[in-house]
Amino acid sequence: MSVLLVLVPVAMGLGFLGLGAFLWSMKSGQYDDMDGAAERILHDDD
Amino acid sequence: MNASMGISPTLEREASELLLASRLDKNGLQRTELSVPDVHCGACIRRVEKVLGALPGVEQARLNLSTRRATVHWTGDQPPPLRAALEKAGYPATYVDDVPEAKDPELGRLVRALAVAGFSASNIMLLSVSVWSGADPETRQVFYWISAALALPTLLYSGRIFFASAWKALRHGRTNMDVPISIGVVLAFALSLFETLTHGDHAYFDAAVTLLFFLLIGRTLDHMMRERARTAVKGLSKLAARGATVVQENGSTSYVPIADVRPGMDLLITSGERIPVDGTLEEGISELDVSMVTGESAPLTVGPGADLRAGTLNLGAPIRMKATAAASDSFLAEMVRLMEVAEGGRARYRRIADRAAQLYSPVVHLTALLTFAGWMVVNGDWHHSISTAITVLIITCPCALGLAVPIVQVMAARRLFELGVMVKDGSALERVSEVDAVVLDKTGTMTLGKPVLVNRSDIAPAALAIAASLAAYSSHPISRALVAEKPPQPVPVILTAISESPGNGVEAQSANVTYRLGRAGWALGSEPGAAMPAGTVLARDGELLGRFDFSDRLRSDAKAAVAALRAMGLPVTVVSGDRDEIVARAAAEVDASGHVAGVLPAEKLAYLEKAKAEGRKTLMVGDGLNDAPALAGAHVSMAPASAADVGRNAADFVFLREGLSAIPHTIAVATASGRLIRQNLGFAVLYNAVAVPLAILGYVTPLVAALAMSASSIVVVANALRLPAPAGARPAASAREDAVPASNLAAAE
């Protein structure tokens, strides 16, 4: 039981971290141009 | 009027149009959005951004490859020549007007709701697995409380999409799929909370949240499909005029938005511009392309005093016209009004999912109620009765049913997208699978709507080469057709001093001889009244070098498409505003079942109304302004990418490729998807037939509910993936290439 007291909050925390990261990346426009992003990585200058 | 007058208003118009399409952003910069349909690769991104960024005044230019749009931030009084620069770099572009301030808010809401539901569902599911595998009561109790803490905000945040829609339906006295979903989810949560409070064995938090998650997947896919089609259609070139060049009292000109044009104003119409409002010609002689308005393919020659209709295209010399009607009273507006009347009929169509819901919710709710009553009679234990009744609701909750229809339609839209057909919404797919007759417009739909050289073999290659290089200096449709011929050999002479004589043709010098390409009477320089060859000629110092015959050509696979439609048992009728003999010949050429010629827009609509009254369901395919009411009034409608804006907006499908085979392919895909939808719905019924008796008898534990719901969803999705591509269809190597024909048209504008 006592191990759960540590593990469950850790698992939840990681989950929230993932959710937060996704929402942030969406908000900052990282999914706006999926095709363009795939091509831009090949450019040297930017 | 001379040719030079046509040039400065064109440039001025360009700048004014850019200003009308721009918006001041919060940093004090002008923001302009351009649709650039030709971009398709990483190199394009660089080139476009470099070309735009190098222009004076441009602060920042960024291209979005997914939407094929470039956003430019610029400053200064003089608008940078964005479109001209892109055109020169090989990327014809059009301005995007109605740029929303924010990105599609609905999609953002759906994806966020989906992310929250996914997070919550996976965590609750993990907790549930440990409960199912035999956690001791104390641990189970803790896990239930954690689950409740996760489920409540999820229900509030992700569930409100369904609750809002269900509430809206109920308030109007209707019911839709969201009503049983909402009731099921809320009751499942309430029961689970009660169980947790009273230290019960079973809680259904996992069922409530996974249900939301699965349904949101279907909802989001459905929305993305429609949004994708909408942006693609919006990216096509705009055919309606945005503004008009008004000649003031003192002779100066100014470019005003179309809504500000009043009757009595003098307007200057340059070559290649569309007539913005109805009016009469004051000064100048020109040719008009009226195919969008009347369906006639031959250009119309007009002189002073002629009536001009909004939407026709000025092919020849610049002209001056007097507006006789405001834009809101012009031909175009009349078409829009006819369309609105026609659309009333279509709104009555109810989607298959809504019809299923109408049948489904009373049955489910009645079953749950009877279960409750039954158990009350049998053992009188109200707690047991209520929880059994609620499990009935949970197990029947239309997880499979909610996904059954959208997942198939998303697959079908994807297949059609690969074939260059955009689907506006799912109900169009359902309607098109029901059609039993096809009506085709002629000009611009069956044909390409632009002239093509028909006697190439009679022309000397050298003459063709000279003609094509002369034609490159003109924007007349005939000139473009010549340029498109791509002569096999290089130009044998060096041409200088090239000038266009509006209404006549193009002229150039080469070592003391004059070449003229254009109207025979002008090019051969003969006295009026002499017998002249018809059509376009190339002459050297008045001596005939070659004669060019043009005609509107059928789309490449028109005949095969009509044959395929007739093989499906659908009669194909050609209905056109053009003259009888032309329509009859075109109808015979493609082997259509019948034809109707010389019809006015309202008569086209009446023809479809009559078919509807006779109980026939008609697919209308058309492109012109004159087709727009018919497109809106037909049971279902398609338009090519080259269609007038209103037509494109009225049509359920827009096809981007040149060929007409899009029509039989669309019907084939829709029929196949209709079959899969029925299979899926049949499966959902079968699933309920097995699951409901178990639930009524009280054998459904949370574990059974979770397994049953997930398994049924997977079966439905897997079934949808079986949707085949239509036989004989050639999907593009990549969906990106689909935009190419559309952009050719944009370039032609």
UniProtKB/TrEMBL annotation, chain A:
- Domain of life from the UniProt record: Bacteria
Residue ranges of the TM segments: 6-24
Which controlled-vocabulary keywords does the entry list?
Answer: Membrane, Transmembrane, Transmembrane helix
Q: What is this protein called?
A: Cbb3-type cytochrome oxidase assembly protein CcoS
